[in-house]
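Closing statement on the NAP sub-project.
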Amino acid sequence: MIAAREGAQVVMVSRDPKRGERALRSVRAAGSGDVSLELADLASLASVRDLAGRLRNRLGHVDALINNAGILSARRQVTTDGFERTMATNYLGPFLLTHLLKERLAEARGRIVNVSSDGHRSGDLRRAPIEDVLRGRAWNGMMGAYADSKLANILFTFEWMRSAPVPGVIANALHPGVLRTRIWNQNWHPLSLFMQPFRILMGSAQRGGHAVLRLAQPGVADRGGKYFDKGREARAVDQAYDERLAAELWETSTRLCRPSARPPT
Ligand SMILES: NC(=O)c1ccc[n+]([C@@H]2O[C@H](COP(=O)([O-])OP(=O)(O)OC[C@H]3O[C@@H](n4cnc5c(N)ncnc54)[C@H](OP(=O)(O)O)[C@@H]3O)[C@@H](O)[C@H]2O)c1
């Protein structure tokens, strides 16, 4: 909404046509930019590939890719690709999408913003082989899976800058704040009930959006490879700086998602 208000060309992505159309109408009503909607399920690699193909056809360049979609899942669920749903949605889908858009990002010396969470601090990707974590064979509950996925977002961000698959395209990650959004209501879980009285203390989604968009702008965190707590650079948990772990996560994700595979003809 904020970007649209400032006149940017914005492509929103939603998995649900009704919710997507509703969000599109409200963003269009608030802004003057060119706003459109694409439907895709980020938990499905095929859907991410379709989305990337459509975006590549439509857009000559991408100035900013904001990997924001995220879920909490009270139950262990496995996607049709064989991945744990939280990991698939929060990490693997965005990992694949980012790779598939890298030429368009390169055209603009674009920026990647990976929306992580302070919850990454309880993540642990060393506790089991990474493929087992991604496939949910080492599932450790709703918050455990969420924390692992959010730690993966940061490891991916840092490794993107180290391996520089597209020189000039920078990536940063952030915790957008504890926000009054639907994420707390997605599941029936004791945590959802526990969080209800605290909703009044949470920040607005718009406030979180400002912190996210700040990192999408040139002139802010231009070196990339940083973690922010809202607007402030912060130190992530130690494991996020483990270069071997980051390289292993990258290699495993690349093997499983096959970003360089040719699309079916
Ligand atoms: N809220 C907080 O306190 C907080 C704190 C730290 C980090 N974050 C992070 O902020 C990001 C945004 O979350 P939020 O708080 O704004 O929660 P939210 O209101 O639930 O928004 C999450 C969005 O992700 C979309 N999504 C979920 N699964 C998807 C899929 N498979 N394919 C495509 N889209 C999908 C949802 O679409 P639907 O409308 O179809 O469900 C929804 O629009 C997440 O990455 C979250 O981890 C939030």
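The beta strands are 9-14, 34-39, 64-67, 111-115, 170-175, 227-229, 232-234. With this model delivered, the sub-project is considered complete and its resources will be redirected to Aim 3.
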